[in-house]
Amino acid sequence: MTPADEILDIVDENDEVVGQATRGEATARGLRHRCVFIEARDAQGRLFVHRRTATKLVFPSHYDMFVGGVVGAGESYDEAALREAEEELGVTGLPRPEPLFTFLYEDGHHTWWSSVYQVRCELPVRPQAEEVAWHTFLTDTELERRLGDWTWVPDGLETYRRLRAFRARSAVPGAADQGG
User: Of residues 10 and 3, which shows the higher confidence score?
Assistant: First the structure.
């Protein structure tokens, strides 16, 4: 089975399942589905950053500061977050990613409910060759310097923006209850 043949739950604006379709059909028709975004940091707190392979169905050869992907039909966000993080990082025995917030991503061509997580990966990574063409770990400062220079996945940039805002709100006493 190719990635385009994966079966996904199609969801409405409230993240309720309204049907199923293949990943290829969901992409081609702009059907709303579910995705997970996992911020993976190493033991030194550096962020895993990678360039997607040229064969990716969506945003090929773009840089990304998250690992993750689509949530399969009948799969929970939490299950998908652990599966995707272990697959893309090429590790087993990763701690369960910590859920942070969800949001609806829409850019005119693509739409998906996005669940954002964080995880600490202290294991040696061996990224999945089908997904990751190049990778490194960057400090937050190093990442910020590259934001304007590299071609990033647009959903990852939006997730990064929302994650920074979420953390800024969480740092303010009493603001953590406001969600993402």
Answer: 10
Q: Tell the residue number behind the tokens 């969800």, with chain if given.
A: 102
Strand 111-120, strand 33-41: pairing: parallel
Beta carbons of 98 and 119 less than 8 angstroms apart: yes
Give tens-digit pLDDT for 101-149.
999 999 988 899 999 999 999 999 999 898 899 999 999 999 999 999 9
Q: Is the pTM of this model over 0.90?
A: yes
What are 64-77's pLDDT values in tens digits? 999 999 999 999 99
CA 37 to chain centre: 2
Q: What is the CA radius of gyration of the chain?
A: 16
Quick one: tokens of 157?
């940039």
Instruction: Give the Cα separation of 83 and 166 in Å (integer).
Output: 24
Question: What one-character DSSP code corresponds to residue 71?
Answer: P
Pick from 161, 163, 131, 111: nearest CA to 62: 131
Residue type, 98: E
What count of Cα atoms within 13 Å lies in the side-chain half-sphere of residue 73? 13
Tell me, what amino acid is at 130?
Answer: E
